Amino acid sequence: MITGCLQQKNGFYYAVLYLKVNGRRRCKWVPMRLPVEGTSARKAQKAFDEIRLQYEREEEERLDREAKAKELAENTHPDALLPFIEYMEKWLQSTRSSLATATYQSYSNMIKARIRPYFAPLGLQLREVTPQHIEDFYQSILADDCTTNTVIHYHAIIRKALQTAVKKDILLKNPADKVDRPKKNVFHGSFYSEEEMLTLFDAVSGDPLELCVKIAAYYGLRRSSRTAVECHRHGTQDDLHQSQGHRSRGGWKVRPDGRGCPENQIQLPNTTSDSSSRNHPAGGEREAGDVPETLQKKLLPGLSRLHLR
Q1: pTM for this prediction
Q2: Surface-to-core class of residue 200, CB atoms within 10 Å of its CB (0-12 exposed, 13-18 middle, 19+ buried)
Q3: What pLDDT digit, counting tens, does each position of 19-74 carry?
Q4: Phi, psi torsion values for 12, nearest 5 degrees
């Protein structure tokens, strides 16, 4: 409770309040703008009480804020005070050993490309990030004419990083859980005609990427599925090549330690065989008649020379 009294100075009333500042008692003179002459004592006392109550409310609010800040500081994990972007980079480094090389590189590029440029100027601590901040970030991506698929990728990495913070008791809840995941954009691809394929084969003839183009053409591989594969002869069949590798975001690759490396096989036809059918990597059967004869003449001879590492 704040105490005080009425005082007169230069013909006006003043409210003199006794406040505690850093544990010491201080007097504060507050002008009431009431002249002594013509102002009743009752009116002056009423004005004084209003000023005193106002300062009491302000003092109570200040003490309450200080108490909450002290409690929060005592119960807050040190990492919650980190800038959000610094936490994201620290999280990525801590999970590096559990991520595939391509996945780690992809996450790193995403942080550098958009997360850092957007959140760094905001100066937000990890604990200060709200669902609205995340939603605004997603809208900025869409404003750059990106599809919702791009937003989904960023939603995945941000939610994953914040969920780790929840598991480690750095945060009480994950703000990304309150942000709706965008609907996936449906991709409608276009395909080369037979004439366009023939033109493409002529264009890459003799080029170091000729085999890569022909493999992609035969199997319908996506552009991201680069042909960094290791091929072997299996068994005694002369009409079959099999490729074993680890399928990752970066493409086909063989992990040297073999850890967590599932086998994926693609089968390459031997053009000297008259076999009527060949296995298709997507799980279905690709008949010899599926490939026009004009394309076989340019496509299949190149596949028989496949031996990449």
Answers
A1: 0.52
A2: middle
A3: 887 778 888 899 998 999 999 989 999 999 999 999 889 888 988 888 887 777 77
A4: -130, 155
